[in-house]
């Protein structure tokens, strides 16, 4: 299993964005990343300067949103939906997107659920609860 470190993730997103801007060939994953990056023009400066991105502190104490975490969550949710894992996530995100009228907004809502699942897993020292995650997204879709 590939387990990238923080710098690998940052290099990946910076590289994908550079290739997109230069109209260079992109892998399928880079293409997906570039599509999500395009939805977030506020991250352009962070992604254009790879050395600064590698050195940046996006800790909570720094008070800055971590664009790489945010974009990674978009990719995670996209991949989860593409393979419907955990089971039911595709339908839940699609229902949420239909209610909100935006896949992008649905991802942001789903991110809250994903983050909560990860936080609970870490707090409790337990495996992530995929069913609870899907249920959280379903609840948001039915509001």
Describe the structure concisely for a colleague.
With 143 residues, the protein is mainly α. It has helices at 6-22, 28-38, 44-48, 50-55, 67-83, 89-100, 103-124, 130-141.
The termini sit apart by 37 Å
What proportion of the residues form beta strands (DSSP E)? Answer: under 5%
Stretches where pLDDT is under 50 for at least 5 consecutive residues are: none
How many H/I helices?
8
| Element pattern in H and E | HHHHHHHH
Let me know the largest β-sheet. Answer: none
SSE class: mainly alpha
Bin the helical content. over 70%
**What does the overall shape look like?**
globular
Computed CA radius of gyration, to the nearest angstrom = 16 Å
Can you describe what's shown?
Helices cover 71% and strands 0% of the residues. The chain has 143 residues and is mainly alpha-helical. α5 packs across α7. The model has no long low-confidence stretch (mean pLDDT 95).
List the helices and strands and how they pair.
Elements: H1 6-22, H2 28-38, H3 44-48, H4 50-55, H5 67-83, H6 89-100, H7 103-124, H8 130-141
Helix pairs in contact: 1-2, 2-5, 5-6, 5-7, 6-7, 6-8, 7-8
Entry keywords:
8 helices, mainly alpha, globular, single chain, 143 residues
């Amino acid at each position: 299993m590939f387990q990238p470190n923080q710098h690998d993730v940052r290099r990946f997103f910076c590289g994908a964005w550079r290739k997109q801007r230069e109209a260079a060939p992109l892998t399928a994953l880079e293409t997906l990343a570039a599509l999500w990056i395009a939805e977030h023009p506020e991250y352009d400066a962070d992604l254009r300067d790879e050395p600064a991105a590698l050195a940046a502190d996006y800790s909570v104490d720094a008070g800055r949103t971590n664009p790489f975490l945010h974009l990674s969550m978009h990719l995670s949710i996209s991949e989860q939906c593409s393979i419907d894992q955990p089971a039911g996530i595709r339908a839940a995100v699609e229902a949420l997107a239909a209610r909100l009228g935006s896949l992008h907004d649905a991802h942001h809502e789903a991110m809250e659920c994903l983050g909560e699942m990860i936080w609970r897993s870490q707090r409790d020292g337990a495996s992530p609860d995929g069913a609870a995650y899907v249920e959280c997204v379903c609840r948001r879709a039915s509001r």
